[in-house]
């Protein structure tokens, strides 16, 4: 299994949301600041799974507010 750096994660998120990676910080709120919806989150998780060659159990999207929280949750699941 590979490891996912925060920079790699930011690249995936930026591509999925169509925004500049420079706008992303650990404290960025996924919905309020970045406009992520549930479909974008599913796509982000799918890209992370493909990159890590890993399949995650159910991801509790309702508990994720910031980019940092999402990164921590996904890297802990891997």
TrEMBL record:
It comes from the Bacteria. Residues 3-78 form the Carrier domain. Keywords: Phosphopantetheine, Phosphoprotein. Pfam families: PP-binding. This is Acyl carrier protein. It comes from Acanthopleuribacter pedis.
